[in-house]
Amino acid sequence: xxxxxxxxxxxxxxxxxxxxxxxxxxxxxxxxxxxxxxxxxxxxxxxxxxxxxxxxxxxxxxxxxxxxxxxxxxxxxxxxxxxxxxxxxxxxxxxxxxxxxxxxxxxxxxxxxxxxxxxxxxxxxxxxxxxxx
Length: 133
Ligand SMILES: [Zn+2]
What we know:
Blueprint: E1 13-16, E2 23-26, H1 28-36, H2 48-54, E3 60-68, E4 73-78, E5 83-87, E6 91-92, E7 104-112, E8 115-124
Parallel strand pairs: 6-8
Antiparallel strand pairs: 1-2, 3-4, 3-7, 4-5, 7-8
The structure holds zinc ion.
């Protein structure tokens, strides 16, 4: 299990941990760790220390209110009734499909200057029973 060190450029993206506020660098090691723990995360919102200690922050759930494929963004209506902005880039879908209206999604929320924004949006297959309340 040796990654190809020569071909893969190391991405040095500095992110801010949403829990402790410290900056951390997104390394391939960290992404490997996330993948090994079954976390399909586009962009982690917790530093490795917080992630190991607390696990990923709980995901919110909701439904896609609308999505404009041309503009590549849309809004999710969360269960709490709040409208949350999301960008196509943040949608995790193995089949590469765009989210459609009414799709059930799970997502992290990050506060931005524009308001709440959804991160790591995971489309829940409709035929799979979601966690019932
Ligand atoms: Zn942290």
